[in-house]
Amino acid sequence: MTLTVQELWVKRHQINETKMFDVVIKDNELGENQVIMKIESFGFSANNITYASMGEKMRYWGFFPAEGEWGKVPVWGYGVVTASNHPDVPVGEKYFGYFPMATHLLITADKVTDYGLRDSSSWRVSNSPVYDNYVRCATDISYQADQEAWDLNFRPLYMTSFILDDYLSEVVSKDVDDVVFTSASSKTAYGTAFLMKTLKEERGMNVNVVGLTSASNVEFVESLGCFDQVCSYDDLSPLSADKYSWLVDFAGSPSLLNRFDQYSNNFKRLVKVGATDWQDQKESKTELNEALAQELFFAPSHVAKRREEWGVDRFNKAYAKAWLSFAKHVKPLLKVNDVDGIGQVDALYQGFLAGDVDVSAVNFVKIA
Q: Which of 65, 165, 181, 256 has its CA 20 to 30 A from that of 83?
């Protein structure tokens, strides 16, 4: 039998150009240990725009290679096994992990345990082993069927928030006045800010946690209560130009970085996390103070470091505590936006590229 897989492909160097592509798989001729998963659902947020805009630099295109100049943007989703040539991966098992925007995924199951498996397909070029693992839902103590929309949108993102906050708590010195987050309406940004604001007194920090966002999103970001102060990109005047400032950048907008650098007399460090403003990256170049300290934050390497230092059990408990606190705070403030079918995904993706986004929504894509 043949299976026609629908996939949304994105042009790697012009990420607003897309096409739906059909791939044919013979599901009765699987290679050794190969497994087909039907993708049931996935989340979608500004984080996925970062995957696309930083696809070359951070090697996100390597997970699910496409032909020629095309790529497949990764998403976090749930998949159910529909065909298997692995003795320990039965049809019907459900997994959480990294998928393309598609209806199905062919993997090579490896290191199979009661708790999950790893995709060791030869064509999969990973930038971190974290992204190659699939968690088995039947033994995942955190899995709840009625919470899938929240888990798909926050579970992977909040891990970045958790580990970024942990990192900042170590490296932000006591004399820093402002830690400023761009793209403050993004889930990873306000997740990090929530932890920093909540825990700063306990940590003996006197830092002001600031969110920068578009003027249309200021009211929403303020309503989240995750920041001490919220300003629009268009008006930085509420910020003191003389305060010792760090910028945690999720937008990746050269013009915004240039403007902040010119405004602030004491801008000392730039931590690059994301790149949601893909268009400005194409149109502008950064012209920052040469003395400015800059770094690129890559969450998986910091997760691995902490797990080794703390042990997996301590790490998981610390993350769970942080997640439960944040979830209790933020869930009443957000709503779920259901997106039905692979055919609706391109419109959702293009909306994010154009900035036409309901920042109060959690996007839950259900594949028919």
A: 65
